[in-house]
């Protein structure tokens, strides 16, 4: 903690100390925070910078919370460390929403928006942030490649098919079943084939054990 941060904290109640910590801590110009990307909300009140070249992950989420919160068929999020971001106005001009308790207090994990135009900015988790790359000014083809989605998650809750060849998880990535790309008839056919193979395998094993 630097002197400014310590001073800011001394004048605020302990429950507000998160306002001076990452991801809301304003990085000092001397701090060597390398600005790789810049981003802003629709109205421009919320501005932030990113120091990391590529997100840790980039994915499209089809869960019903994302559908409702973004009023969209699915959401695009890129994962970063809390220290990778610099909100140029810190916690100011932001508002919070906790979809679990339906409260607007800052409680992790929560959704973060601009408090004026209400553009969704990011999801703040306990250790990471999932920010919405639609706000990032991606200038070159390489920038776009860096942020390109790597998978779909909660694809089981989708309202539309996205046959793009990316891996599609029924729930959380790496913790649920992979769903084949459309058309759905093909998915069903593969499912039936797999069940038949399993049945035959079990029958074969039972015969061998007799
Ligand atoms: Zn705004
Ligand atoms: Zn989601």
From TrEMBL:
Gene3D superfamilies, per the entry: glutathione-dependent formaldehyde- activating enzyme (gfa) (3.90.1590.10)
Gene Ontology MF terms: carbon-sulfur lyase activity; metal ion binding
Biased composition (Basic and acidic residues): 186-210
Region Disordered, residue ranges: 1-22, 170-210
The keyword Metal-binding appears for this protein: yes
Alphabetical UniProt keywords: Lyase, Metal-binding, Zinc
Matches recorded under InterPro entries: CENP-V/GFA, Mss4-like_sf
CENP-V/GFA domain sequence ranges: 37-170
Family: Belongs to the Gfa family.
Protein name, as recorded: CENP-V/GFA domain-containing protein
């Amino acid at each position: 903690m630097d002197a400014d941060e310590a001073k800011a904290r001394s004048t605020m109640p302990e429950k507000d100390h998160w306002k001076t910590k990452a991801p809301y801590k304003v990085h000092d110009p001397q701090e060597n925070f390398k600005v790789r990307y810049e981003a802003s909300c629709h109205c421009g009140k919320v501005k932030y910078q990113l120091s990391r070249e590529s997100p840790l992950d980039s994915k499209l989420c089809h869960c019903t919370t994302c559908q409702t919160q973004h009023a969209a068929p699915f959401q695009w999020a890129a994962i970063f460390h809390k220290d990778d971001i610099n909100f140029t106005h810190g916690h100011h001009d932001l508002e919070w929403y906790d979809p679990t308790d339906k409260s607007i207090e800052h409680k992790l994990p929560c959704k973060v928006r601009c408090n004026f135009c209400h553009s969704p900015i990011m999801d703040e988790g306990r250790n990471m942030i999932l920010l919405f790359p639609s706000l990032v000014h991606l200038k070159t083809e390489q920038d776009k490649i860096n942020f390109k989605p790597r998978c779909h998650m909660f694809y089981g809750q989708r309202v539309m098919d996205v046959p793009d060849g990316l891996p599609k998880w029924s729930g959380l990535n790496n913790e649920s079943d992979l769903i084949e790309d459309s058309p759905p008839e093909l998915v069903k056919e593969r499912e039936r084939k797999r069940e038949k193979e399993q049945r035959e395998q079990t029958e074969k094993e039972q015969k061998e054990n007799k």
